[in-house]
Records
---
Amino acid sequence: MTKLIAVDNLSIAYAGPAGWTNVVEGVSFDIARGEAFGLVGESGSGKSTVAYRLLGYQTPGSRVQTGRVLFDGTDLLQLDAPSLAALRGRRIAFVPQNPTTALSPGMRIGSQIREMISAHRALADDVAMDDRLRELFGLVGLPDVGRRYPHELSGGQQQRVTIAMAVACNPDLLVLDEPTTGLDVTTQRQIVGLLSALRRRIGMAMLYVTHDLALLAQIADRVGVMYAGRLVETAGCETLLSRPLHPYSRGLIASIPTIRHATLGATGLKGVLSRDQMPDGCKFQPRCDAAVEACRSAPQSLRNVDAGHAVACMRWNELAPPAPPPRLGKVPDGAGSATGNLLSLQDLTLSYARPGWLKTLFGGEEKITAREIEIELNAGEIVALVGESGSGKSTIARAISGRLAPLSGSICLSGEQLEPGLSRRSREQLRQIQYIFQNPDASLNPRRRVRAILERPLDHFGIDFDAAALENALESVGLHANYLERFPEQLSGGERQRVAIARALLVKPQLLICDEILSALDVSVQAKIVELLASLKAQHAVAMLFISHDLAVVRQLADRVAVLYLGELMQVSRTDALFSSPWHPYTEMLLRAAPDLRRDDYRPMPPAMPQSVAVQGKGCALAGRCPRQVDDRCAQSRPPVQRMADGFIRCHIPSAQLMAAAG
């Protein structure tokens, strides 16, 4: 295949207090026309820095030390600003990680895409532009959303809009920087399926930057593994995932749980990427179990070991073959086992509208976000709440924590009914429920040192403490006392999340609400946080409501799982039973969408209905989307709750029939 873009010996440095520091060193790879190349590695490995150079972007305080980026024979690093502007969007396009910040909140979707097309293509008239917009929306599986604003779309829909904008001019190369981070599993597969279809239809090449190797397996032809600014291995995607040769590649792959192999503690990697401790030789040496003394001083560069397979390791052929995937396991029973009812939600119905407001204004029923939720959580138990984006998971968490007053129903903690709002709850009740947010960047005060961040809740609740208590709290989450004097910006993403967990644990809560706390972390850090949560459960009998879209982590960590769809609980079951026999059709759809480390023939399910009949109190929430829909009952009447030995399902199909279908 003909090379479209070639990165040749690229080295990039950033300015710092001690002068210029190399963050990318000697990176070389190429991408052929129509090929998908994946770039993977932990946070801080230099993936995004390389990706942005393929668009000719240069951040302030950085410079290219050596190298070229040749696009169709032209060095992008030598082009002036007007020449780069002419290429971007027309021949090289970009899909960002966060569509919320990429789309202008004050412009309608159609206007934003029109503006981009007009900058690069001349269409005959407004009719031709309207036709092109409708074509683009259809291409990415959206209705005509041109008149809507970004905030009126879900995260998955916003990401589809950014893809539509990126491919509007049929580019030759599409650069994607973590385009599915934070999206639920079905939306992730829809996006990947969409990109594969666009690649076949338009013939564009792709650079796909991600830390999700299981998802990358579904789209990439070849993969490059980066560590500390260097490429340490390149190979075909299937070859790399089945036969990794570099110790770092092996550890990275071993850190990935799947719903078939979700084993606690199989992290495969020790330590963290720390650039201030890099030796002159192999950068991975401080974390490598296979390292010898020569690794510290002898720099390693990529060498071909097989057709299309290169590795930067002097000992690659001396290492034992990679171990097979570990046997399925989960949190061991022990001190943290359930010991009595702690939290009880009964007939909980939630809405963000004021009672009577929507009904008065529109003459209809309130727009319900979650309806008749029943969940019980025992002391020392981990219950996972799973479902697609918009299903109401975080809404339920907000109600439990007192940030959203229910329309009806009750929330009881240790047998005592909680007041609906924070202001009416006692200080003791507030202490017993602690919330850990998805994004530690937003939940930690950037102007306060870690010491002050940890002291604040202790002062608020009037708890006596000393320096040893703060140090012990950090040690319990795997950090040392030196972190007390650091600011959040001096910590990695995983370290910031550990500080957030330590802050929540300091006041000795009975319940932790963990709201997507792993979604923005790379796989090796995720593995360490999961291990930490499991140890907290075992040592302190802390109960957790664990909200996640990562079903592999859920299988690894949770005792029970509650499956939520458009505000309705579809199934509640013991974890092992749910994953081995997903009786409810929606549960089965979710598990089918979870990617493995091998490419599969998964066909994305249709997206959720914009307005569920169940939201209006009629029919099943899954009606119109369910692969087993039987007759008009599904759309006309709410399905009954069928109690099981370890939970319940909500479905018109009798449980015996569902059990038989599950095998």
---
Amino acid sequence: MLFSGRPLSLLSATALLFTSPVHAQSADQATEISAGEITRTVRTMTLDQFEGRAPGTAGEDRTIGYLIGRFEALGLEPGGVDGSWTQPVPLLHTVLGKPDRLSISAKGETTALEAGKDIYVSTLQPRDRAVVEDADMIFVGYGVTAPEREWDDYKDVDLTSKVAVFLVNDPDFAAAADEAVAGIFGGRAMTYYGRWTYKFEEASRRGAVAALIIHETEAAGYGWSVVESPQGENYGIARSDGEMTSLALQGWISGGTAQKLFDDAGLDLAKLRVAARKNDFRPVPIGARFDAAYPVKQEVVQSQNVFGKITGKSRPDETIIYGAHWDAYGEGPPDDEGRIYRAGANDDALGIAGIMEIARKFKSMPQPDRTIVIAAWSAEERGLLGSEVYAQNPIYPVEKSVANLAIDVLQTAGKAKDVILVGKGQGTLEDDLARFAKLQGRVVTEENLPERGLFFRADHFSLAKRGVPVLLMMSLAGASDLVEGGRKAGQKWIDDYTGNCYHAACDAWSPDWNLDGALQDINVMFDIGNSLAYSDRWPEWKSGSEFKERRDASAATRQ
């Protein structure tokens, strides 16, 4: 099998070259999660030889070889397709060039737009040009169709060959307490309907030729600089023509540009925002036309998910999946220290190190009743693509997947008095989290920025959509109450990391890291999986979760 044109022998050589030794230990030592092993894994995965671990590169080849070598050294069995270690993840990679045309026309006046400043778009169509030919623009409110909430922004209006324009987040995000919509979509806590991925998918299902979200920093959870940071690059799952999105272009329109668009068309955007918070809202033709043509560089690159497993003794068809993503952002501009590789030490080499240690601990114990799967996902940073490919083509049936326990970014500032819960009210695994945190002398703290929708922005979500109960361990969801320095110190760690090093070259291992808090979190995740591995208990979704119905439909397979 080839990986981006490089032979498997290179992977084998890489495995031998970069495999960190798993040192022989006594039985007691082998049952401990080791900060030393975690450090060795992170430092290895962030070496320049891995080139920032971008999918479809030589750095990926070396990463895959390293992961296979480590899984073998841990004594895991191959857990991939047809007895291999891997699962193919074919990715469409596109990069837009400078636009030949980019404008909006309204009432006989044409306004040229500046790419990156007024509008940011990309494409997921495998074509050499992305063209929207003078198409009608239509405002569709929040772009939500949610029958279970008796909500439909589209009202069966035909979007074929039109440009859909949305508001960001959920219909109740900005609602006052006395508005009818208040709380229907979780209030300040974002639902999946608030995510840009959902809005683009829904517009495509309705035949739109393009889709633009009006940017607002508070509702989006990030500023315009984050929107434009991919610089016209996008990744998607490589699809056949029949499965391809209808959207030639998808992206964002800046708040100021959107305001001018509606003003020029004689529409009151402020009043439309309020109207869109009512369930009798109907799409509003803007009376403007969008015209754009971009050259596109596009290619299909072959990436890989990597799997190891410990086969269950009595119920091997029931699986507990531990997951983290191996990919990072590859090469970028030099930082102040001359580093060019955005190698993601915390995001998510630390997560990979955590699930490796969990695997090592399980291997030191009696064979579990259920199968333990250790999953290293590809292309999380490109839109949860590796886990989505798996969820569409599961190696282990989702109906009998007991749980997916995900690790993505852990705080490195020391022990904490609490553990951060992402996605309150979703499932019974949060009760397990509270139970095992209490045994550590810790309490659960809810995420303090639920409007950012972090529950929907990590790899576990691909499996949640298929009904698999999930739990995410992510320290970015709220400031930890640190033993030294309290919540103020926890917030400082988040501010320093997200403000300086998130998705940047300085997300690198540091001798200043204190992994005591990360060890607490990794141990909790082990304890939760361990409590399921030797039992016949099935975690469930809680009443009100949008994923409960999907899981309940397959209940008979778990009897």
---
Amino acid sequence: MTEASPNTPTLTCGSRRRSQSDALTRAGRLGSAILAAGIGRGDKCVIMARNDIEFLEISVAAASTGANPLPINTRWTAPEVAHVLRDADVRMIFAHTEFVPVAAAARELAANDAPIIEIAMSPELLAEGGWDQGLAEPTGRYELVEALIAAHPEPVGHIEGAIADSLGVIYTSGTTGKPKGIAREPMTPHQLLSIAGANAQRMGLAPGVPMLVAGPLYHTSPNALAVLGLRMGADIVIMPKWDARKFLAHVDTHRIQQVKIVPTMVSRLLSVPAEERARYDLSSLTHVIHSAAPCPPALKRAAIELFGEALWEFYGCSEAGTITWIGASEWLAHPGSVGRPADGSAVTIADEHGNSLPAGEVGRVYVRGADYWPSFEYLNLGAPSSPVPGMLWVGDLGYLDSDGYLFLTGRDAEVVIRGGVNIYPAEIENAIIALDGVEDVAVFGIPDTGDLGEVVAAHIQPRPGADLTEAAVRDALASQLANYKVPAHIRIVEALPRDDSGKVYKRQIQNSYAAGESVESGAGVA
């Protein structure tokens, strides 16, 4: 691999390092190969890969032709991948060797004839991630990315409007149902520049800025930031997978200024003993951005203690982009909030009929994107309907305070209904995560044997070495929550099924209870 000079922006992943000029040249040559295969404007190219240098090169290559690069969650099964292949009429599939079997099975299920392009996995990547070194041997059944690059020495030329076309479709994460394709209207140059400029300014990106990619590149926010950073000439370090100690070491060693994280990562960092964390210098950080999942107040306060004024939070959605922003000091003045709308975006709290609700009352969170955000329809599903004209609801519940700050209470699909009373899991999760020894928690509803509908359940992951018991948790919650909110069923678990973007698969936990199985009413009964 070509070494870069100290002042040249680079892409680093484990022990591999590539100058960005080389990476962009390789992306251009791969773009020529994609065009030669008859793929271009509006066509869809799936990427199913670990975080790696090639992930970004492929993303840029597809975009340079006007095709849509569609990252796929590496934890998805073949039927889940097949849904996207069918829904988006995918024309090309890029897959790391590890995921080629899933991609091939998905292609067969979807009756899709898109060629599979295999991405070889370097021994360095496998060593950094702790994965089987046997994966360094390609399957030999499909064309390799490196072969396509080698066969096309001339990079693709400029194609007017290609970048706008490449942003035409993205998919939701699919944590609460099947992923939906979001088909955006073609963006004008003004919109593209406005989105890029706003993101760069708020998220601390600039040429030469050392940035760390800590989250999965298959998730929209880390992907968009990393691609923007590459185009701007930021100095990028990619983590193949999350590891709290390696995160601290990267920040210290590379003098990282910008990073996007999720609350789960903060909790993992806090599980590293304080005296060990103190060995690392985190003072270079200027922008630590978090989003994607609710951050319990106790965890947020700990994050502010760790990162100070560098910590920023935003709330948004794939459909409408970033909606609200809040800084560390502002949050301390409005604890629990995710901020106020920015750049012309808007938030309204209303009921299911579209009737506005007063400050402090929980309802549906209807949003509108920033002034420059494009309109959209759901791919193959049409435009979303809403009882609030010009506003969108994506399932979140919350309220606005008298100053216009937004507070989230959870998602509509997660509300536990017990005896006709709505119980919001986020409130209970906030109380549990504040207890000593708790690293992670998920609260959800399961069927009750009585006539009250549902019972509150909690799965709790302790910090390493912590001695947590169900009885101790219940005793601690008894003085903080109404008795009907205290979980009747508590299970101490080794880990929760979260995706790498921090979203917990509550449906997966709920489905782990056998059909028809229920829990006897006990503590917490109203």
